[in-house]
Amino acid sequence: MRPIEVISKENLHLLLSNEIQQNPSFPRIQDSCCIMVPLPQETVDHILSYVRREDLPVCACISKAFQDATERTTFECVKVQSSDLDIFDQAFKHVRRRSILKKILFHVNLPSYGRENYARLEREGDRQKNNRAYSQAISRFHQILNGWGGTNVDKLISDEGGIELLQTPWSPDDLVPGRRMQSSLDGAEFNDDIWIERYKRSFLVVDNVQAIPEVAVVSTFALRAGPGKARNTHPATAAELARKMPNLREIKWAISDNEKWAKYMDARRERRTEFAQALVTIPFLHLTIFQLQFTHREPRNHGWTPHSVISAMGPNNEEHVSDPLSRALHTVTTNAPNLRKFVFKGPIVCSPEILWPARLTRGCGQERNGNGDQRTLPYWSHLEVFQVMFSAVSPDGSWAFEVGPNGPQDEESTPQPSLSDGDYESELGSFLSDDSVDRGDRVPTFVERVESGEKPSCDFRDAVKKEVFDAWLVSPRIAFCAILSFIISQVFLIALVTSERL
Fold first, then answer.
1. With the CA atoms of 226, 228, 234 and 237 taken in that order, what torsion angle do they form, in degrees rounded to the nearest 10?
2. Of 254, 247, 176, which Cα lies nearest the Cα of 222?
3. Can you tell me the distance from the alpha carbon of 497 to that of 495, in angstroms, rounded to the nearest whole number?
4. What is the pLDDT of residues 440-498, one digit of tens each?
């Protein structure tokens, strides 16, 4: 088949005329503009395969057959702005178009904040405005899909049917061309635009999520995050929205967990705890794939002391001795009877409790943990892939890596970090005393990097600690095959778990 790069409307009519000339037995319909015949649907599909996607809507005006063929392509994947939800609702009033739809790219428009605020961090009032706009958009979107009734629902249990939803919230000001380059300038002397620094510690929350309608037609729920891609969604909100999608087969979430500065660690611990609490209450009856990118970039200063992400007390004033999120993710694997693929990467801060319950003591099947409570050993009847990429930092704040056998063996020969970029106190003091610069809310990047273990760079941990290795791999009650790849500061753990009772 010879491809045609561009085909105009005139050439398309000419192509049809040639088809008529070669097939005189076709009935002819003539009007003042052109000659048209009822072509076989296969011929129509073949003709449209040469047409550029942006020209397809024009072809829908040719005939009913062309309209049907065109809509099968143009309505298979749609981009929807939250400001255009009424248009989206009108376009999919017809059941036939709903049955065609396979993927929705849903962009939630947050309020603009204007050029005058490019150098200002978000305040609580800004976060509340964003949450209101986000909540209204999600609520309206779910109302529309909820009104579709039984469309596609009967096919959701099979490997076909269902809609993939990719949600990306942002403000129009986040995407102004040139901001990435402008904000990349480092140092206290430049404060005109802080770009992602303005909102990187803000996480979108849906107000009154209990009132959000259920959506039965969504089978895949994806979240995107990262500089220039989308704003951060609170992980607990992601889980609560997943609860509103009872026929989910796939989850693909990208969520930030990269906070390392001590002054913001309480907020990070709270997010992880709320995420864990939301996850364990979802049954995930149809879930087959769970992909979570919970990114935590490792500190570059290996002499820095990380902070624990484990809250001292739980919501009921119980004492936390292990990571609630790791336990919750393990619960997800056992609550999803049809789970085939579990991918958890970032690298992420987690413990071996993702794989099995802590402190199992005796017997098989029903076991007892260290507190004497009865626990059930993991049972994964369909699991094929269990992949975890864990961070060099453990949830309790300890390093999972140490100096390897080829590294320095005593403290004196261990590389010591040095502030080669200048004295920290001097740098901060100079910044605070400089009244000639309109600093906005910006703390010098250098200061934040020091407080977060990013500066000065000092890499010397290149081997996994034995106790960490044993905790992940050694247990007489776990049967699995593991492949390990140690790459200086992170570990990729891929465990292909057997489908028998463990």
1. -110
2. 254
3. 6
4. 566 667 778 888 888 888 888 888 888 887 887 754 344 343 333 333 233 333 333 33
Element (H, E) at 181: helix 179-183
**Poorest-confidence range of 34-43, 126-135, 147-156, 352-361?**
147-156
**Which is more confidently placed, 188 or 33?**
33
Is the pTM higher than 0.85? The answer reads no
Question: What is the Cα–Cα distance from 472 to 354, expressed in whole angstroms?
Answer: 10
Q: Is the pLDDT of residue 228 over 90?
A: no
Q: Count the neighbouring beta carbons within 10 Å of the beta carbon of residue 474.
A: 11
SS3 249: coil
What SS3 class is residue 376? strand
Domain boundaries, the chain: 9-74, 76-216, 257-417+458-502
Which SS3 state, helix, strand or coil, does residue 292 take? strand
- For the segment 293-316, the average pLDDT, to the nearest whole number, is 83
Beta-carbon contacts of residue 331 (< 8 Å; ≥ 6 apart): 279, 280
CB contact at 8 A, 333 and 388: no
Average pLDDT score, the chain: 76
Place of tokens 């992602």: 196
Backbone angles phi and psi of 308, in degrees to 5:
-70, 145
Instruction: Give phi and psi for 349, each to the nearest 5.
Output: -90, 110
Residue owning tokens 């413990």:
351
State how far Cα 40 lies from the chain centre: 43
Question: Cα separation of 260 and 262, whole Å?
Answer: 6
**Angle CA(211)–CA(217)–CA(223) in degrees, nearest 5?**
75
**CB-based contacts of 458, cutoff 8 Å, min separation 6:** 300, 301, 302, 303, 415, 416, 417, 418
d(CA 158, CA 482): 31
Query: Beta-strand (E) ranges in 156-244?
Result: 163-170, 218-223
pLDDT of residue 32: 42
Query: Residue 14, Cβ neighbours under 10 Å: how many?
Result: 13
Contacts of 445 (CB under 8 A, 6+ apart): 186, 187
C-alpha–C-alpha distance, residues 251 and 162, integer Å: 13
DSSP secondary structure of 396-458: TS-BSEE--TTS--STTTS-----TT--HHHHHHHHHH-TTS--TTPPPHHHHHHHTT-SS-B
| Interatomic CA distance for residues 354 and 323, integer angstroms | 10
pLDDT at 306: 93
CA distance 343 to 293: 8
- The H-or-E segment that residue 43 falls in is helix 41-48
Comparing CA positions, the residue from 275, 272, 233 lying closest to residue 396 is 272
CB atoms closer than 10 angstroms to residue 471: 17
User: How many Cβ atoms are within 10 Å of 463's Cβ, its own excluded?
Assistant: 15
